[in-house]
Amino acid sequence: MEASVAKGARKQAGAVGRARRRRWLDFKKPIPVPYVIALGIAVWVIFFGLWELANAAGWASDLLLPTPQKVVAALYELFAHEKFLHDVLVSVYRILASFAAACAIAVPLGILMGSFHAVESFVNPLVSPWRYLPAPSLIPLLLMWLGSGEMQKLALLYLGVIWFLITLIMDHTKEVRTELLQTAETLGGSRRQILTSVVIPAVLPNVVVAMRQMLAVSWTYLVIAEIVAASDGIGAMMWHAKRFIHVDKIMAGILVIGILGLLFDWLFRTGHRLLFPYLEEGQR
């Protein structure tokens, strides 16, 4: 009897142990916040550790792969003794201006395309092919049409995101439940009323998510836009540093772009939570 009880206790303890181990990899199950923070720190410790190891072991030339300390020193030099803050502000302006212009067209057009098949049938044959055309391939035309000034850079950033943003918003709009539309029609709502009172409020959270995703894509085009006949901006600084093999400054520029991207992503996620708190409550 005692042996049976002991055996059952061991099985129960083993089951509890397995349950604890599975908690790390349970599907869609949250883990405690301290673990989230610890894992986030751990991956960066490993990354910088491998970076330092590569330098210490001589796997790469110090000229082509400077140490993290040299990159941080170069970043300080850029901000303290060069006009890098101006470059950063110019790049942020270009991203925000071009992205705002893209959203001004993509959001209403994507909602209309997702709401009405006639609009989709008319516009989508034009939008779809552009999604497969790399925006940098348009640089020669943009230079001839707009010159090498500010408009050429804004146009490249604009064209790099608008087609995908239109498609994402259209697809999200199509996911609005048909029952909501049918109920509104039964209650006598007009097309305008259904669009403004049902469709837009229902799709708006996903519109913000799509905007957040495409803003990240806009940052990926920044360096391409700023290396062509540019005198300012993060990309221009990196291109000038390349001429003199200042890899530490190039990596400092990459670091700044990554930090700015994370900052804007955090702003979008925070704004999403503040604008749509009921979605957060529904997931608890």
Tell me about this structure.
This protein has two domains: about 1-55; about 70-280, Orthogonal Bundle (MetI-like fold), CATH 1.10.3720.10. Helix 4 (about 85-115) packs across helix 11. It is mainly alpha-helical and about 280 residues long. The chain has 13 helices and no strands.
The H-level CATH homologous superfamily of the largest domain, spelled out, is MetI-like
Number of strands: 0
Helices and strands, in order, run as: HHHHHHHHHHHHH
Low-confidence stretches: none
Q: Structural class, judged by helices and strands?
A: mainly alpha
Total of helices: 13
Shape estimate? flat
CATH topology of the largest domain: MetI-like fold
Helix content: over 70%
Q: Strand percentage, roughly?
A: under 5%
Question: Can you name the CATH architecture of the largest domain?
Answer: Orthogonal Bundle
The major sheet is characterized as: none
Mean pLDDT across residues: 88
